[in-house]
């Protein structure tokens, strides 16, 4: 029996994710599917339109056997950190394959890129020089690798990070790609499989999205935007004595925040005003989220993955967990005084401010959802 790992955000869960799961079932009919899922906020530093609890329920209702939490602290950082900790959690459940979407769908090319990154001693120096020249990371990476193909695609870039993490954690895990069937940057709802960003945008302005995701997901979607937290962020920026202590606040960018925060009326406007060549939109988003939640560089440096949390499982998943229980090395419940858990709760409280719903009991009680 194969044990297949998925790394997902499900923001929201849509027909493309069903396609992904069905493809896994075709490739590996006798398999356990384990998904590690981001929670209230995303790798890009934005608010999720589905709560963590709802993501777990939806996953179990769509042929995923075990759902695991990717903690806030790792789920809202750069791709290598996001990928490393996702793979580390999946490795605890003894997955033998990790299957991910890819624009190029060429695992050999992705592996070659990872070979260069890990083995070419000049690569990191080239990237550093290009970053210092004002280039953002994806462009610097592509240029340093002398890529002839366009790898500035979100799934390919994440795939490279997944493969690097697999090499570092357990090279016996086999990375497998599934061709992404839509463009991340599409803006039309012309098909039943479209990008999550497209669905979110249409949902927020009230367009019909019923053909793009399961009907039972639609009532669970929350009309949240980062702008709902803008006033809290503005207060934090204007009253905090030292913004440089927070994660991702580097190279004096705190002075640009102080300069532009009063001139900006929305979060997007603030990001546009603060943005430089060195800071991508996503990096600034993550930085602002870390300021808002109070995630310091000091805490980040001290933090280790000292537990992992099982969000839910079905009967097949329960039986599999019994067979590997003795081989799991990390606790499956939050460790007392864990910094990882501290920030997870703070993320839940912050999400409540955006959604006006009380959701933190799911984190505090820590009772996995059990699907019969």
Which SSEs are present, and which pair or pack?
Elements: E1 2-8, H1 15-27, E2 31-38, H2 52-60, E3 66-70, H3 72-75, H4 79-92, E4 97-102, H5 107-119, H6 123-132, H7 137-144, H8 154-169, E5 174-179, H9 196-204, H10 230-239, H11 253-260, H12 267-274, H13 281-293, H14 297-302, E6 310-314, H15 315-324, H16 339-355, H17 361-365, E7 369-371
| Major sheet description | 7 strands, mixed
Count of individual beta strands: 7
Helix content: 40-55%
Structural class: alpha/beta
- Computed Rg: 20 Å
Strand content: 5-15%
Instruction: Please give the count of helices.
Output: 17
Task: Note down, in words, how this protein is organized.
- The chain has 372 residues and is an alpha/beta fold.
- Helix content is 47%, strand content 11%.
- It has 17 helices and seven strands.
- The protein has helices at 15-27, 52-60, 72-75, 79-92, 107-119, 123-132, 137-144, 154-169, 196-204, 230-239, 253-260, 267-274, 281-293, 297-302, 315-324, 339-355, 361-365, and strands at 2-8, 31-38, 66-70, 97-102, 174-179, 310-314, 369-371.
- It has a seven-stranded mixed sheet with strand order 5-4-1-2-3-6-7, with helices on both faces.
- Helix 1 links the parallel strand 1 and strand 2 (31-38).
- Helix 4 (79-92) packs across helix 8 (154-169).
- The chain is globular.
- The two termini are 21 Å apart.
- Mean pLDDT is 91; it is low at 184-189.
């Amino acid at each position: 029996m194969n044990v297949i790992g998925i790394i997902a955000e499900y923001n929201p869960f849509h027909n493309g994710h069903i396609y992904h799961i069905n493809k896994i079932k075709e490739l590996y009919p006798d398999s356990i599917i384990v998904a590690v899922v981001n929670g209230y906020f995303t790798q890009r530093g934005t608010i999720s339109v589905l709560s963590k609890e709802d993501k777990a329920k939806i996953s179990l209702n769509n042929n995923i056997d075990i759902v695991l939490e990717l903690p806030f602290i790792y789920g809202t950082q750069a791709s290598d950190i996001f990928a490393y900790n996702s793979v580390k959690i999946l490795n605890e459940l003894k997955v033998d394959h990790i299957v991910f979407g890819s624009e190029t769908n060429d695992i050999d090319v992705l592996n070659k890129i990872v070979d260069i990154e890990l083995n070419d001693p000049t690569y990191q120096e080239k990237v550093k020089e290009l970053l210092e020249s004002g280039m953002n990371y994806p462009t610097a990476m592509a240029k340093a690798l002398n890529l002839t193909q366009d790898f500035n695609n979100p799934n390919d870039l994440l795939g490279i990070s997944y493969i690097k993490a697999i090499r570092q954690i357990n090279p016996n895990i086999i990375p497998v790609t599934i061709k992404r069937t839509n463009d991340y940057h599409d803006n039309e709802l012309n098909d039943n499989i479209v990008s999550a960003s497209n669905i979110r945008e249409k949902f927020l302005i009230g367009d019909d999205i019923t053909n793009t995701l399961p009907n039972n997901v639609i009532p669970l979607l929350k009309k949240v935007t980062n702008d709902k937290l803008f006033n809290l962020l503005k207060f934090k920026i204007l009253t905090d004595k030292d913004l440089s202590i927070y994660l991702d606040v580097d190279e004096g960018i705190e002075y640009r925040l102080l300069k532009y925060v009063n001139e900006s009326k929305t979060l997007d406007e603030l990001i546009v005003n603060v943005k430089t060549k060195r800071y991508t939109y996503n990096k600034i988003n993550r930085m602002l989220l870390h300021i808002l939640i109070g995630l310091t560089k000091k805490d980040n440096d001290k933090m280790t993955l000292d537990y992992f949390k099982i969000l839910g499982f079905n009967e097949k998943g329960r039986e599999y967990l019994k067979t590997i229980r003795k081989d799991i090395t990390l606790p499956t419940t939050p460790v007392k005084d864990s910094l990882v858990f501290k920030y997870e709760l703070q993320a839940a409280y912050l999400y409540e401010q955006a959604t006006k719903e009380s959701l933190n009991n799911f984190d505090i009680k820590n009772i996995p959802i059990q699907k019969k």
